[in-house]
Model the fold of this input.
Amino acid sequence: MPVKNIDKARGSTTGRPIMILLDMLGKRWTLRIMWELRDRPLTFRDLQKQCGDISPTTLNSRLRELRDFEIISHDTGGYCYTALGAELGAQMTELDNWSRKWASQLNDSQA
Amino acid sequence: MPVKNIDKARGSTTGRPIMILLDMLGKRWTLRIMWELRDRPLTFRDLQKQCGDISPTTLNSRLRELRDFEIISHDTGGYCYTALGAELGAQMTELDNWSRKWASQLNDSQA
DNA sequence: TCTTGACGCTACAAAATATGTAGCGTATCT
DNA sequence: AGATACGCTACATATTTTGTAGCGTCAAGA
Done:
């Protein structure tokens, strides 16, 4: 029996892990949720507030997917990274660093 | 004059670079396009083939956004990373590494 | 015990986004 | 001239996301 739905994620016919990951992260709000969880657990309602405009329907669907894939877990403190999820979460920090550099360069090129 | 549309990206009212980045990467196909360009330039039609199911409408819209933000450029060889874009592209490799570890752990947990 | 508040979520119609097919105009080879 | 590849656009259909309302559970306080 194959790993949950890992073989039939949207747009991913190959079953290659990177494709499944890109597919999941490429859904609206997934990256944002990962970002918001970067340094503390958050409840469902906390996440709704932090993300501003996310609908509960979509939030629930993203959280379910992240849980199914064991990237986050849910306990009494709220939603938080699993051990492996934390390593992916660390990439969020890299993206943040890159984005600052990017923003300053874009400003330069249009000064 | 502010940087192009950097202040009014979808879901991003703050103008914080990370929000704009997450917003852009969170649109379907953006990450996939970055991935496909990781080690060589590709033409519009190459990208269509590599991505399998992407519609030309969507592809064009993503390429335009990536170009506007100076992450990719387009010359006679096709679409490819800018210098800064290449640094973001390098993150794709990190995601790939993570995804392999992830896949093997998911398999273990369901063996 | 009653009420108040937070919790995680579901329902569902409306709006926004992406798809799939067809094909246009340009350029470059033969 | 004809064939081919290029980057794209049009547009109707399909899929995804939103926004609002509200349900059922639980725990603390009056």
Remarks:
- The first strand of chain B starts at residue 72 and ends at 75.
